[in-house]
């Protein structure tokens, strides 16, 4: 792993006036002085640049869609940080469309910082992104993350580096100190601030963060959530039968809630919502139209096939055990 020389950061003339604003770095103290800047990452598709997705206005506002695997990776890198390190930083990867930015992956980047210095291993970040492109060529650099609840002067320098990798990059903060007994997660984009001809500063504007997941990620999220109700925060994996039972119970609860909503609308207790009505109609149309007799026949046929496979498997297991006994005589 390449090692970079630290770059001295001159002290700011005055502290920022808000926790989301910080002074810009003076000329000559940009992060490029830490190590030679890596070649620029491939530009995002012209149909959906990052700047367009974050400049608005568009339906839904400026939204960052965050996957749980990103949060898990950030927390894991914080737990494995070097001794004495106050925080960890890393690169955010994902995709961009016309309405939002979706962060699907990330990787940590080694760095060292003190009160007056900051050094980032840019060569490591470049190599990691090149390797990642071979696996997921559609994912581009969206910005960077840092653990902690505030934005420091060093964050401005690091953000300046990522501004060369992605136009208008995102800065994601994850409060691993759990202030207020929760993990605060915020996203920002930077904007210049100051008087023309004078020292310019940078203001970080917050974005809306929404949590999304794939179906495969939902399984892991549901399992992690179960540990909240366990005294020792440990829970074992459920069997296939237990998972089927849990899924059936959730479906039953959902159907009960939907039926109650429909009854309240018909009785006038709740105002009708056209969006919910269209969604329920689409859901009903997806249910196959089959008579109860045909459904029972199909179910019994599948059960008989399953019982036959189970019987043959047990018979094969018995034959193997008998063969081993005969060979041992």
TrEMBL record:
Coiled-coil annotated spans: none
Pro residues biased stretches: 8-18, 36-48
Pfam family, one: JAB
InterPro entries linked to this entry: eIF3f, EIF3F/CSN6-like_C, JAMM/MPN+_dom, MPN
GO molecular function, one term: translation initiation factor activity
Regions of compositional bias (Low complexity) in chain numbering: 19-35
GO cellular component terms listed in the entry, alphabetical order: eukaryotic translation initiation factor 3 complex, eIF3m
Protein origin, superkingdom: Eukaryota
Chain intervals for the UniProt region annotation (Disordered): 1-48
Domain named MPN: residues: 64-194
SMART domains: JAB_MPN
Keywords carried by this UniProt record: Cytoplasm, Initiation factor, Protein biosynthesis
Job description of the protein: Deubiquitinates activated NOTCH1, promoting its nuclear import, thereby acting as a positive regulator of Notch signaling.
Protein name as annotated: Deubiquitinating enzyme eIF3f
Species name: Atrichornis clamosus
């Amino acid at each position: 792993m390449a090692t970079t020389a630290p770059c001295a950061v001159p002290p700011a003339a005055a502290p920022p006036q808000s926790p989301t604003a910080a002074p810009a770095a003076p000329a000559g103290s940009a992060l490029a002085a830490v190590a030679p800047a890596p070649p620029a990452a491939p530009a995002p598709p012209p149909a959906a640049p990052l700047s367009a997705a974050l400049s608005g206005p568009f339906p839904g506002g400026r939204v960052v869609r965050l996957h749980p695997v990103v949060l898990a990776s950030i927390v894991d890198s914080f737990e494995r940080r070097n001794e004495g390190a106050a925080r960890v930083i890393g690169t955010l990867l994902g995709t961009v469309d016309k309405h939002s930015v979706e962060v699907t992956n990330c990787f940590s980047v080694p760095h060292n910082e003190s009160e007056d210095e900051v050094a980032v291993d840019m060569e490591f970040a470049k190599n990691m992104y090149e390797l990642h492109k071979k696996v997921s060529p559609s994912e581009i650099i969206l910005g960077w993350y840092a653990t902690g609840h505030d934005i420091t002067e060093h964050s401005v320098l690091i953000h300046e580096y990522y501004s060369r990798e992605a136009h208008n990059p995102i800065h994601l903060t994850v409060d691993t100190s759990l202030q207020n007994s929760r993990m605060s997660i915020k996203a920002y984009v930077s904007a210049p601030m100051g008087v023309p001809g004078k020292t310019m500063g940078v203001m970080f504007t917050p974005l809306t963060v929404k949590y999304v997941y794939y179906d495969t990620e939902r399984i892991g999220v549901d399992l992690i959530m179960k540990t909240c109700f366990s005294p020792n925060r440990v829970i074992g994996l459920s069997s296939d039968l237990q998972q089927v039972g849990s899924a059936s119970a959730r479906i039953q609860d959902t159907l009960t809630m939907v039926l109650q909503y429909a009854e309240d609308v018909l009785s006038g207790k709740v105002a009708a919502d056209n969006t919910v009505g269209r969604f329920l109609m689409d859901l009903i149309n997806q249910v196959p139209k089959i008579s109860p007799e045909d459904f029972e026949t199909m179910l019994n046929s599948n059960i008989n096939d399953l019982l036959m496979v189970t019987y043959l498997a047990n018979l094969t297991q018995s034959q193997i055990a008998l063969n081993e006994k005969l060979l041992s005589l």
